[in-house]
Amino acid sequence: MFGQVARRYDLANHLLSGGLDFWWRHRAAEIVRQWQPRWVLDLATGSGDLALTMVRRLPKAEITAADFSPEMLAIARAKGLANTVLADALELPFADGNFDVVTVAFGLRNMADWGAALAEMARVLTTGGHVLVLDFSLPTGAWRPLYRAYLHHCLPWLAGIITGQKAAYDYLGATIEKFPSGEEMCRLMETSGFRNAQAQPLSGGIVTIYQGTR
User: Fold this and answer.
1) What are the residue boundaries of the structural domains of the chain, listed by start?
2) How far apart are CA 87 and CA 102, in angstroms?
3) The pLDDT value given to residue 137
4) Lowest CB count within 10 Å: 87, 93, 160, 163, which one?
5) DSSP letter string over the chain?
6) Is the pLDDT of residue 59 over 70?
7) pTM for this one?
8) Each residue of 172-204: pLDDT tens digit?
């Protein structure tokens, strides 16, 4: 599915988010910059936008970008991302304690086992290392029904026009509805090897940044 939409994936993200995806990645990269890591792993890197944002913010850090889609990694490399690895996030080809920070943007939600994926992230982190998860969530209040209408009806139709692959986006609303958010996600992180888990909603709760310490 991701291979089918790889060519127009970035365009779809920018248009369907109204350009907010640039701000979301900027905020995530700024948090990582404050941790001053030396070794960073960006999981489910896709076309590499978060990894490239971190490369610009952290010139002294070594950024490794991993994804299980060769088509997506090809796009990331074409955009200038040098250090890419074809890998399954549930079975990472890295030694224990190999990274200071692990990030994953809009990817954990699509993994077959969220807890197992988080545990694998914890495994490859140093003690005291950080994880940052950026993913979709549902806003609260009056915006919630409006957002749901957009998510389930408008977005797949618009994405189909942009990418020619409407079916690849029909799944999106269902995955966001099922994905744990807020305190539920923090509890999952803390049972998967992290402490001090916290959630920071952005853009009215459309997305949330989660942080935790190994």
Assistant:
1) 19-139+182-213
2) 14
3) 92
4) 93
5) -HHHHGGGHHHHHHHHTTTHHHHHHHHHHHHHHHH--SEEEEET-TTSHHHHHHHHH-TTSEEEEEES-HHHHHHHHHTT---EEE--TTS-SS-TT-EEEEEEES-GGGSS-HHHHHHHHHHHEEEEEEEEEEEE-PPPTTHHHHHHHIIIIIHHHHHHHHHS-THHHHHHHHHHHHS--THHHHHHHHTTT-EEEEEEEEGGGTEEEEEEE-
6) yes
7) 0.88
8) 777 888 899 999 999 999 999 999 999 999 998
Place of tokens 């609260």: 140
Q: How much is the mean pLDDT over the chain?
A: 88
Class of domain 19-139+182-213: alpha beta
Query: Average pLDDT of 6-14?
Result: 59
204: closest CA among 32, 43, 23, 13? 23
- The full length of the chain comes to 214
Block residue for tokens 């799944």: 171
Structure tokens at 73: 């990694």
The answer to whether the beta carbons of residues 89 and 104 sit under 8 Å apart is yes
**Calpha distance 11→195 (Å, rounded):** 36
Q: Which two tokens stand for residue 176?
A: 């966001």
Q: In whole angstroms, give the CA distance from residue 207 to residue 176.
A: 10
